[in-house]
């Protein structure tokens, strides 16, 4: 199974955003969902649940690791953090994402480029 | 094993995921409540926004790769439920597969052992066996793999293409005559000193033979006569004595020293015959009490008893080796020619008799293989056809079931099951059926192989051929099952899922009579019939062959006759006593109650044995150039023709006084009269042998009797009184008995032992010898007959199934027809007409198939050709009758449908 397959956005987008968020600080699932939502200013309507299969894929791929911790409300939760392999993956995804974005921009606004 | 370790951690991972989701809902609820939402609504909202939890869990599971196994288990469970729900279908499916796969496995197992299993030696694929192919006058060829000893030595010493050439011969029968002996006869193999080196077979105890052990005729080597014993003999008779090396062993009275034990899987170089003793060829005169040594160069002819095997030198091609061997062979042949023949040969008027050929030696030589590998291969084709028919049949039944399951499949597709998943489900069902059938088939094969072995001729004592579930057999069964599953499972699986869901749902209940699926069903049924035609044709030909052979006039009466094989050589009797011994044997046997006639002869009937005389000449007959001047001859005692039941046609039989007088007499058969006397009465005429004048007077003519085997064509034969050719070596005591010959056997054994304890080799009834001589034909007829009826049964089931299915589908149409006034007979005919086209179509494809396939077994037939019209016509008639019968019942049921019920149907 391809770890970046995903039904929303473009393939790999959700993973990229999770990794980016986790790079700043380890998070548990709900906080991660809130964080992604708020940092996109609610522009991205991602289904909260889809985080979890994505996290499972990334656990399996070794991009993130999980350990037990406490949430802000003192609940026992699993806290996910990015691994070195995850960082490398993120770099790789960002650069290909940038290239893709550039390409799309040129196609969409040829006159201004 | 990745999925296994995953499976172990699976509970932990799944619980953690459940905890994650649970925590998510709790956190979200808490934050919504904080924003002022009532807790109940907050919890609902949290769940709603999280999405479909079971789906999330499913998706996560997929990440870890558990679904593969899980789905398989689901599919298996589902399939088992379905199978249990229709036990009739399941039973028919598994039974037909078990018979199909089992028959394949059994024949494969036997063929593997007899024809394909290699010798347990080092790199057997490198071995080459020498062979001479001679062309007969009739244009047929005869290949020979035995040679005289001097011929072997010449090749061994002069070849430049082989590492070494080893010689061996399996003919030795021996027993331990010392007090320690077990009293049983054993098989032995004479081998050259380099035999074990050439084959690369080590001794598991002691050492193997060396060329030094085989260097002195009569005594072996400087250390005296030595031998190796087989693992089996060592374990059983010698009680696995670990200090056996160096101990003496008595072989037919001679003392040999045991120098080693051969490995347990080494049975000598003949498949189906295992030797218990391996001894140097130079010991032949010492342990085999034949007149004269087989090692010396015979003046003419000579006994060919040595088979030759070797490994080519690196870089030497078989063609180069053949050239090399031919040069040596030419020298040998030319040195033995008469001066006039030699002149003719060098003037290129006469070709060298025989061409040297190399045979791959990897499988060993075997009389059993020679006689049975072709019939077994023919049977392999037949059983493969049976399996194909079984698969086509199952595919058809599955198609029909697939239709019946349209609703189930449509529902599953509609609620989002991917098509691949449905196909997988179908395949799981097929695979389960196939493997259940394969497992049952393996059991069937193991059970039936015992019956198969009993069909082989018993006197050849096949050894080590028992079928055991070894790796090759299991692999074959597995492969056969897998192929079957693919063959019968694929089409129905794809077919059943082809229509899209909405169309399927719409079509349920429409009961359309000529759905698109029907031609496929018909096609498969046609295929079944097309395959059944060559199978039944083969069975018919083999059964007719057996019938022809049993009905053939053998020229003698095989009932109520015992043949006792004796050997004056084994009894070590001086020639001067032979006549006396023969007289004693006859007199004492005649005194046994129930014996009506007894005589003695130099070759028993149906023993594949005959003697031919030197050049013969007949008055007024001119031999053509190249025509054989040899004449087959048999030495008999008086009363032979009565004992054998060979009818006298003209003149008289021998009296006790013939042979005592100086004048020579002969009785000839009708073939000889036809050949050399143009069918004229030859009584009173004389003929001569070699340079003698015509001094043998013909006193009688008898019917042609088959003496080699039942297939043999009548050949000219002369019978002489044995006293006339003294000292004649007589081989068989032939005894005609009133009633069951078996009852007289003990007294006969006793009588012969009284004359001399070592005289008797074996006693057999003539009818059992005749039976064994057609063991091959009987095996073919019985097995192909069984397979033929199996195929017929399968075709019946298939046709019945299709008809029943068609009737069910067309119930409404039939109801309308009847309501509109169609007669019942019309309905039956309408349904049967379909079957008729299927049968006709199948036969049209099957006949050329049968024509092509049966031509391959022409040499196995007797008294008819492969394209025998009666057999082929009979096959078609049987197929037609059986198929129409199978189709008639569903058709009749259809015609009896009550239109009201039929229209309400669905």
**What composes the largest sheet of chain A?**
3 strands, antiparallel
- Would you list the SSEs of chain A in sequence order as H and E? HEHHEEH
Overall geometry of chain B comes to globular
Portion in strands of chain A? 5-15%
Low-confidence stretches of chain A: 1-7
Report the major sheet of chain B: 11 strands, mixed
CA-to-CA gap between the ends of chain A? 39 Å
Global Rg of chain B: 38 Å
Strand content of chain B: 5-15%
* Major beta sheet, strand line-up of chain A: 1-3-2
Helix content of chain A: 40-55%
The proportion of residues forming helix of chain B, as a percent range, comes to: 40-55%
Radius of gyration of chain A: 15 Å
Give the number of helices of chain B. 27
How would you state the average pLDDT of chain B, rounded? Answer: 82
Say how many strands of chain A there are. 3
Report the largest inter-chain contact. Answer: A-B, 25 and 24 residues
End-to-end separation of chain B: 50 Å
> Structural class of the secondary elements of chain A?
alpha+beta
Question: What does this 3D model show about the protein?
Answer:
Chain A is an alpha+beta fold and 113 residues long. Chain A has helices spanning 13-24, 29-39, 51-61, 84-108; strands at residues 27-28, 64-70, 76-82. Helix content of chain A is 52%, strand content 14%. A 3-stranded antiparallel β-sheet of chain A has the order 1-3-2. In chain A, strand 2 and strand 3 form a beta hairpin. The radius of gyration of chain A is 15 Å and the shape is globular. Chain A starts with 12 loop residues before the first helix and ends in a 5-residue tail after the last helix. Chain B is built from 27 helices and 22 strands. In chain B, a hairpin with a 2-residue loop joins strand 7 and strand 8. The longest helix of chain B has 38 residues, at 367-404. Classes of the chains: A alpha+beta (113), B alpha+beta (906). Chains A and B meet through helix 2, helix 3 and strand 3 of A and helix 1 and helix 3 of B.
């Amino acid at each position: 199974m391809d770890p970046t397959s995903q039904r929303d956005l473009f393939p790999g987008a959700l993973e990229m955003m999770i990794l980016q968020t986790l790079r700043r600080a380890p998070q548990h699932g709900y906080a991660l969902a809130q964080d992604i939502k708020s940092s996109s200013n609610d522009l991205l309507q991602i289904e909260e649940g889809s985080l979890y299969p994505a996290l499972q894929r990334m656990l399996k791929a070794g991009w993130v690791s999980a350990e037990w911790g406490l949430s802000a409300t003192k609940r026992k939760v699993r806290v996910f953090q990015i691994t070195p392999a995850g960082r490398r993956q993120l770099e790789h995804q960002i650069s290909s994402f940038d290239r893709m974005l550039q390409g799309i921009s040129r196609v969409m606004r040829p006159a201004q480029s | 094993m990745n999925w296994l370790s995953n499976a172990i951690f699976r509970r932990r991972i799944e619980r953690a995921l459940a905890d994650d989701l649970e925590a998510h809902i709790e956190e979200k609820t808490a934050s919504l409540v904080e924003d002022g939402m009532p807790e109940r609504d907050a919890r609902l909202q949290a769940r709603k926004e999280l999405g479909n939890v079971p789906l999330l869990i499913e998706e996560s599971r997929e990440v870890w790769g558990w679904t593969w196994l899980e789905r398989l288990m689901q599919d298996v469970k589902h399939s088992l439920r379905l199978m249990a729900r229709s036990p009739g279908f399941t039973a028919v499916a598994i039974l037909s597969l078990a018979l199909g796969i089992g028959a394949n496995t059994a024949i494969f197992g036997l063929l593997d052992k007899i024809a394909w299993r290699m010798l347990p030696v080092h790199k057997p694929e490198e071995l080459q066996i020498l062979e001479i192919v001679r062309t007969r006058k009739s244009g047929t060829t005869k290949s020979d793999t035995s040679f005289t000893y001097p011929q072997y030595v010449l090749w061994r010493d002069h070849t430049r293409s082989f590492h070494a050439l080893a010689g061996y011969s399996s003919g030795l029968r021996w027993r331990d005559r010392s007090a320690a002996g077990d009293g049983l006869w054993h098989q032995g193999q004479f081998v050259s000193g380099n035999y074990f080196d050439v084959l690369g077979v080590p001794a598991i105890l002691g050492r193997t033979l060396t060329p030094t052990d085989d260097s002195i005729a009569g005594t072996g080597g400087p250390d005296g006569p030595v031998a190796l014993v087989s693992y089996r003999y060592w374990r059983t008779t010698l009680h696995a004595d670990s200090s056996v090396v160096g101990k003496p062993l008595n072989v037919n009275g001679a003392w040999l020293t045991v120098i080693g034990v051969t490995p347990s899987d080494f049975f000598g170089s003949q498949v189906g015959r295992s030797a218990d003793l391996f001894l140097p060829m130079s010991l032949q005169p010492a342990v085999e009490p034949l007149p004269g040594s087989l090692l010396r160069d015979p003046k003419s002819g000579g006994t060919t008893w040595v088979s030759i095997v070797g490994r080519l030198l690196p870089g030497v091609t078989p063609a180069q080796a053949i050239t090399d061997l031919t040069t040596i062979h030419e020298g040998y042949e030319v040195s033995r020619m008469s001066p006039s023949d030699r002149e003719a040969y060098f003037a290129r008027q006469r070709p060298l008799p025989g061409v040297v050929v190399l045979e791959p030696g990897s499988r060993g030589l075997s009389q059993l293989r020679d006689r049975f590998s072709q019939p077994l291969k023919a049977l392999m084709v037949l059983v493969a056809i049976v399996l194909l028919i079984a698969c086509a049949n199952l595919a058809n039944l599955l198609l029909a079931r697939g239709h019946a399951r349209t609703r189930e499949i449509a529902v599953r597709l509609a609620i989002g099951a991917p098509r691949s998943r449905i196909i997988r489900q179908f395949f799981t069902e097929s695979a389960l059926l196939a493997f259940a059938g394969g497992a049952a088939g393996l059991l069937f094969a193991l059970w039936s192989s015992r019956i198969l072995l009993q069909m082989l001729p018993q006197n050849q004592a096949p050894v080590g051929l028992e079928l055991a579930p070894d790796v090759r057999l299991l692999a074959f069964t597995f492969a056969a099952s897998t192929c079957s599953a693919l063959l019968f499972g694929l089409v129905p699986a794809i077919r059943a899922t082809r229509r899209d869901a909405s169309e399927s749902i719409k079509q349920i209940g429409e009961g359309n009579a000529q759905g698109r699926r029907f031609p496929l069903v018909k096609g498969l049924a046609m295929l079944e019939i097309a395959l059944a035609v060559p199978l039944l044709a083969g069975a018919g030909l083999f059964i007719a062959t057996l019938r022809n052979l049993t009905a053939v006039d053998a020229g003698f009466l095989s009932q109520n006759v015992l043949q006792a094989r004796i050997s004056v050589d084994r009894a070590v009797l001086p020639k001067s006593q032979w006549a006396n011994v023969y007289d004693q044997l006859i007199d004492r046997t005649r005194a046994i109650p129930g014996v009506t006639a007894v005589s003695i002869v130099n070759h028993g009937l149906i023993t594949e044995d005959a003697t031919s005389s030197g050049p013969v000449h007949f008055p007024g007959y001119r031999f053509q150039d190249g025509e054989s001047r040899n004449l087959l001859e048999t030495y008999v005692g008086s009363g032979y023709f009565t004992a054998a039941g060979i009818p006298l046609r003209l003149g008289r039989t021998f009296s006790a006084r013939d042979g005592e007088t100086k004048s020579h007499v002969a009785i000839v058969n009708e073939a000889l009269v036809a050949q050399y006397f143009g069918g004229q009465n030859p009584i009173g005429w004389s003929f001569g042998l070699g340079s003698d004048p015509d001094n043998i007077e013909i006193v009688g003519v008898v019917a042609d009797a088959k003496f080699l085997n039942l297939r043999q064509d009548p050949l000219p034969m002369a019978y002489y009184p044995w006293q006339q050719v003294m000292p004649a070596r007589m081989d068989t005591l032939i005894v005609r008995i009133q009633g069951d010959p078996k009852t007289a056997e003990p007294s006969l054994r006793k009588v012969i032992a009284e004359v001399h304890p070592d005289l008797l080799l074996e006693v057999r009834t003539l009818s059992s010898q005749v039976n064994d001589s057609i063991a091959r034909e009987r095996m073919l007829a019985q097995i192909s007959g069984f397979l033929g009826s199996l195929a017929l049964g399968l075709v019946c089931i298939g046709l019945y199934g299709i008809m029943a299915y068609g009737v069910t589908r067309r119930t409404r149409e039939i109801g309308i027809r009847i309501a509109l006034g169609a007669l019942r007979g019309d309905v039956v005919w309408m349904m049967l007409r379909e079957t008729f086209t299927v049968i006709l179509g199948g036969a049209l494809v099957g006949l050329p198939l049968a024509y092509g396939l049966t031509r391959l077994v022409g040499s196995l037939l007797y008294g008819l050709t492969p394209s025998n019209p009666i057999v082929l016509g009979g096959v078609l008639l049987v197929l037609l009758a059986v198929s129409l019968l199978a189709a008639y019942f569903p058709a009749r049921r259809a015609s009896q449908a009550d239109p009201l019920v039929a229209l309400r149907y669905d």
